[in-house]
Amino acid sequence: MTAYAPLTIVCDGCFSNLRRSLCTPKVDVPSCFVGLLLEDCELPFANHGHVVLADPSPILFYRISSTEIRCLVDVPGQKVPSISNGEMAKYLKTVVAPQIPPELYDGFIAAINKGNIRTMPNRSMPAAPHPTPGALLMGDAFNMRHPLTGGGMTVALSDIVVLRDLLRPLHDLNDAATLCKYLESFYTLRKPVASTINTLAGALYRVFCASPDQARKEMRDACFDYLSLGGVCSSGPVSLLSGLNPRPLSLVCHFFAVAIFGVGRLLLPFPSPKRVWIGARLISGASGIIFPIIKAEGVRQMFFPATVPAYYRAPPVK
């Protein structure tokens, strides 16, 4: 059976076979998640997701039912220890388990012994569309970010709302060329939410990964302590994380507020040449983390979307 449509929405996920003809895919795999299901144990703080700042990279815990907790262990790089020959179980027990909160330790070991371990590559891919008459990419097939912040569905649902509002005034989708020209505005209108969450996910992952570099350690500690201050220092980043505040400039301000907070802690009460040097490297490292991500997202589309001509596309009139 063959079906034809004037507009096809392509959303076949992170392993998409169709994206190559609709975008320029630059897929990066910074790490892999190792998934476990912990049973009959309690989180240290009920009804909250947990991020453990472990070495070498973060570990996530969150409840998915009344008896089950999902655990995702981030393993840097594209290769993970083999599950079949027992290397993975050994790695989890010797490297990861000692860093697990005591409340979850027994459940973590039991989950390893049960052997139901799953792995998944964590992919990142900036949106680089080729406007194509009759087709539109969405979801992970179109744009991915590190899943540490769980922002994928937020971006996807936000994209759906943008597309719905663009399609609502249309009564005829059959003029593919005109429709394609009009829908180019979708790629600009989605940017505030998508670029904010994408940039935050990439930046937080880089900051939360352990490093032997003292400046990176200071940045990680400063980020944790900045969030612990509460008030706008907590609610601001959380509103960015959840997509409730889709302002990229606000994200940049908070990110460098963390860096300046870290430098301030180093220089007070008495700065020394060594501390000044670490502070300078902290600012340099922070810039090296966030600016490449912003460049990949597109500076103009991120911060000045109103200057992009497609932003003002009106619906075709027949």
TrEMBL record:
Localization of this protein: Membrane
GO CC, alphabetical: endoplasmic reticulum; membrane
Swiss-Prot/TrEMBL GO biological process terms: sterol biosynthetic process
EC number: 1.14.14.17
Catalytic reactions on record: squalene + reduced [NADPH--hemoprotein reductase] + O2 = (S)-2,3-epoxysqualene + oxidized [NADPH--hemoprotein reductase] + H2O + H(+)
Membrane topology: Multi-pass membrane protein
Pathway involvement of the protein, from the record: Terpene metabolism; lanosterol biosynthesis; lanosterol from farnesyl diphosphate: step 2/3
Keyword match Flavoprotein: yes
Residues covered by the Squalene epoxidase domain: 5-277
Signal peptide residues on this chain, from the entry's feature table: none
Family: Belongs to the squalene monooxygenase family.
Its biological purpose: Catalyzes the stereospecific oxidation of squalene to (S)-2,3-epoxysqualene, and is considered to be a rate-limiting enzyme in steroid biosynthesis.
Protein name according to UniProt: Squalene monooxygenase
Gene source species: Vitis rotundifolia (Muscadine grape)
